[in-house]
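Researcher: Next entry in the queue.
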Amino acid sequence: MSQMISPSNPGAQFRVAIIGRPNVGKSSLFNFLTRSRKAVVKNEPGVTRDIIVGQADWWGKSFEVLDTGGLTKREDRFSALIYQQVMSVLKYVDLLVVMMDARSGLLPEDRDVVRIAKECGKPFFIVLNKVDREKDAELLKSEFYEFGMDVLHASVERRDHTDEVVEKIIGSIPEGAVVADQSVRLAIVGKPNAGKSSIVNAILGESRVLVSDVAGTTVDAIEERFAYDGLQFTLVDTAGLRRQGKRLAGRDGVEILSAYKSFDAIDRADLVLLVMDSVIGPTEQDAHIVQYAYEKAKALIIVANKFDLLKKEMPEPKKWFRDRLDYTFHFAPDVPLVFTNATAGRQDALLDEVIRIAKKLEFKISTRELNDFFYDVIRQAPAPVYRTTNVKFYYLTQTEQKPPSFIAFANHPEGVTPAYRKFLINRIQQQWHLEGVPVRVFIMKSN
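Model: Structure for this entry, 447 residues:
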């Protein structure tokens, strides 16, 4: 049986986690360090509920940054889950940045965060954020010296003293730290409460993603690296995608921003895992996601979750679901399908299918073999006609892109119809068993 390995194994990239109580500016620092707007920033506590992972490159050094949910003892249903989640990932990081808020002063929850940092045994330093006037810095920092260590001050929003934070991180990275591998990116998408986060946790073997029975728990797209069967993967769990009308009807913009992040995750993925509640079956919203993935030329696997419940309701559950799938996704026949139960633990069947599709994405063929096949194919169908002239193909070559992509050179590219292009794609897929992955054929004019 193939084994997964933890991202904390030797050779993993240097990881920095930003921790603190809610609303101290952790997401703002994350976005600054990663030069992105990956973390949703809003002036209210609790917006970050999941671990968000981003890549940082500063001054010739590369490291990963983890934005975490706010650590608090509030007696609500999410706070305890967030606390457990943050604690579960701290053993996988190399350095902690403990953030505090100068405007609020030192609070008991700040002491709890420092205690957590000390107990986990990881090196850490303190950043006092929201110091807007330099002349007030020493006075504001004075009460934080009770921790017996230096305290950096900054205003992340104003970009004041943020270079000192970067310098402190860079100084902690050992020489020869490994840059992240070129991995296969997996985006897990689907409607709220379909079980995406549960599948992520089952794959990783640990509760690193917040899971509850409340739809919409995952706010941001979050990332984790893992290895399986000799291949490296980056797993991206996304917010549940609702219909646009329902997103716009929300009381604030957090869900809208999260939806943008979900589609961005699809854009940057090599392979999309569309998770569905198998009892409900495919929906119109799922069809929109499939269509979007196909338009972006992304490989796709349908993950029918909660299959144990479907088996109790249907005499032929697999046939029922496949029939519904073929009807709803009539534009995407023979899409790969895996039935699973996220609560059953390891996801070997799903991962084996991921490996099968991922290897197809790496397909390469020599130009000579490709053109021997191409000449046979174009003799089997009448050439398209451009005005009064037959389109003449000269040769076909493969590009370096993923998914497998090819360029056919012809005298009149504008005469190649969508139907003929589809004919070429189908024959390529059949010849080299590339069903289940998108294949692209570009037509260019021969000089």
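Model: The chain has three domains: 11-172, 184-361, 367-445.
Researcher: Noted, moving on.
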